[in-house]
Amino acid sequence: MTDYGHDLILGTFHTPQNRDPQAPVRLAQLAENAGLDLVTFQDHPYQPAFLDAWTLMTWVAASTERVQVAGNVLNLPLRPPAVLARAGASLDLLSGGRFAMGLGAGAFWDAIEAMGTPRLAPGEAVTALEEAIDIIRGIWDTSDRTPLRVHGTHHQVDGAKRGPAPAHDVPLWIGAVKPRMQRLIGRKGDGWLPSLSYLQPGDLAKGNAVIDEAALAAGRDPSAVRRMLNVNGKFSTSRLGYLQGPPEQWVEELGALALEDGVSGFVLATDDPREIQVFGEEVAPALRELVATARRSAGTAPAARRRGAAALAARREGIDYDSLPAALGERAVEPGDRAYDAVRHTYMRSGAPGVVLRPRSAEEVAEAVVWAREQDVPLAVRSAGHGISGRSTNDGGVLLDVGALDQVVVPDDGSRRVRLGAGGTWGQVAEVLSPHGLAISSGDSGGVGVGGLATTGGIGLMGRKHGLTIDHVVAAEVVTADGRVRVVDARNEPELFWALRGAGGNMGVVTWVDVEATPVTDLVYSIMVLDASDTAGLLERWAATVEAAPRELTSFLHMSAGRGGRGPMAQLMTVWADDDTDAAIRALESLADSAPLLDHQAVLTPYSGIVRRADAQHSGGGEPGSRSGLLEHVDQATARDLARFLGSGAAQLLQLRAVGGAVNDVAADATAYAHRTQNFSVAAFGSRGGAAGIDGVWDDLVHPHTDGLYLSFETDARPERLLEAFPEPTLTRLRQVKRQVDPTNLFSANFPIPPADA
What we know:
It is a single chain. Helix 1 (about 25-35) runs parallel beside helix 9. The protein is about 30% helix and about 20% strand. The radius of gyration is 29 Å and the shape is elongated. By secondary structure, it is of the alpha/beta class. The strands form seven sheets. An eight-stranded parallel beta barrel has the order 1-2-3-5-8-9-10-13, surrounded by six helices. Strands 27-24-26-25-29-30-28 form a seven-stranded antiparallel sheet. Strands 17-18-22-20-21 form a five-stranded antiparallel sheet. A hairpin with a 4-residue loop joins strand 6 (about 150) and strand 7.
């Protein structure tokens, strides 16, 4: 049995005819509805009866939701590789990671030459393709900050800027039937995509051998190359020949190709709607089951994708990579993988996890948790990786990234209970809810993940009017340390539901939350720049104005110390949480009196215009240092010491966020976030000397004024901080819940709460 360890991909191969330009689009939508994974199109730019394949792919990607799109295969001689790379990355970003790059060296050279491209001999075309691969990969490699230079015989770039990076590790599938091309695939390709009609009996085995040998010679594992096949045939009630018969015959014959020749991708060349439906609804599920059963019987079910020598050498101790469940192994990223640099870091922290798991369902999250429990390394959980504290990565451990669980579901029954996948971002949520006249107060950055904020607190720009994010969570799905998938709310496991709202990172992996959204009109959003020379006076006046203001006003104050001959500066981000512009102007005029006003912009905008969708890919930045506290008030003494702290240079940014108002309407014991009397959150970020450089000055000047802390902004891991995050009796109650759902303290990366003694 030949098995290269890949899950099956089933798709279609369509003619991009332009007689009815919407016909190929309808076929693609039909393929998606039939349960297929992939739609591909011929690429013959010299053919006037065809739509341009690239334009068609973009249209199809926008007209579908799930299927991957690819050229089968793109005509490289007529598509410059640097431009092709940027176009591919753009389509991948726009489609949410649904693009695959199928490439060909060119076949119909009379037509290609007629379009103005010089003819290449077969050997020259292979060389040109290899040069193009280097350029495409180089454009996508944004982890390399140097300009891209490839000085090939047929393709050259000299100092090209890299980027954008695609949304995912785009596979590069190459159409080929000759040994020289197959050797190139073994060295540099991600997939072999020939057409069965061009192959003779035995050609698959011969091609596999050539690819395997070339891969090994290049230091790659042969399983790095997926084996795919374009097939055609007809469905009928009786067996008339090879792939000419009923669906069960197709399953048998395609199954033999999968099990004997290692083919894991079957692409049906057809423009017949009925054939698409039969292939997707009858052949595909039966074929998947046949292959899965055979793998189980043979003991060859792929635990994880095999890797080459260089990738194996990069593996970290304490992780049993070979025991990784198959569904997780297919998408797992290890230190030796191309995609590693795109997933290892967070917004502020540079990470080096031993493996990044990317589950696609709650069931896969459960598999990941059970597997991670058996590894002798730390576990970190990430929703989007924006967390200031940097806890959603680690060094040498397991990172469980739920970014694929990013759905935002708005009910069509008129209710306001929306379901948010933990891997979504709050910019995405705001964008989806805005047309419905709904919003959820959710911090100030659209790149923040749903899961992190909705289990910690959620101090947002509508907080004084609408409270914390967690105050509107009414249910959640969570995977606990035992691998159980639990749905909890006020009636079902109420203690765990209580704990998730404020200490969720200690209790399990939340996969979705149900949130009661708030009806919201347009809002007034204001940004002021103030002279902060009188730092203490500004702080005291701003805080007093905020406390006295109507609840519609929520204001965040960002301050930076003076440097380079410039004095300290302040920026106010303020929201007036309705569309009463006259009332907003009066409140903003009062805020402007806090200090000399240098600049002011204000707009009437939907909430989605404030918390905007943002890129969740991060490049790290070292070891972040940040400290956090909560303040009842900012009196004269507090303002004086905050000003001294800012002037010390211990931190690059000091931030105060207004809370109070609706936040404090909630009882202290209603959620695990117990801080319901304070009016301000204060945080300091970006110490020049790392965490140690900020701690001493903070402890001397700011900490004596604080009452509690907001853990998302806190990097100080000293044990005494735990009681500040979870004051008694909250901590004792959390320890009791912890004993029930995580007695071995698997989830210990985020302010670890020790389980109560038995």
